[in-house]
Amino acid sequence: MSHRKLYTEFQIRQLECNPNVQHVTDKNITFAPAFKVTAVKAYEAGKTPMEIFKDAGFNLTMLDREKPKGSLTRWRNAYAAHGEAGLLEERRGKDSTGRPSGNKLSTEEKLKRAEAKIKLLEAENDFLKKLEALERQAKQNKR
């Protein structure tokens, strides 16, 4: 494992302004689940990890050089194994034999999860609209 890049207070604040970021610490960036799905689909459409992160508004000089590629590799594996749900919900600790999972969800819990998924899908739609607008703008600026 390569040495991890530490983020400064300024970089953390800058990263937190990006709508594709859920949380940042000095050592780690937690990306928004909708961004992960969009990134995997953009990769499948032929974009490189660097292009995807750049298009999503990330300052690539701020990120660890391996971050885009490593993140996309993990996300693609999760997507291949579990579909979009693998990226939309926290999967760490899932499939472990440690604790029995409570598969009997209450109606309230099912509603909470459905509402969370709706929020995520709305965020993904907003992200895609912004991306389309940026791409249109970029095309117009090239003329």
TrEMBL record:
Which InterPro entries does the UniProt record give? Homeodomain-like_sf, HTH_Tnp
Stored SUPFAM superfamilies: Homeodomain-like (SSF46689)
Residue spans of biased composition, Basic and acidic residues class: 88-97
Question: Region (Disordered): which ranges?
Answer: 86-110
A Pfam family that the UniProt record links to this protein: HTH_Tnp_2
Tell me what this protein is called. Transposase
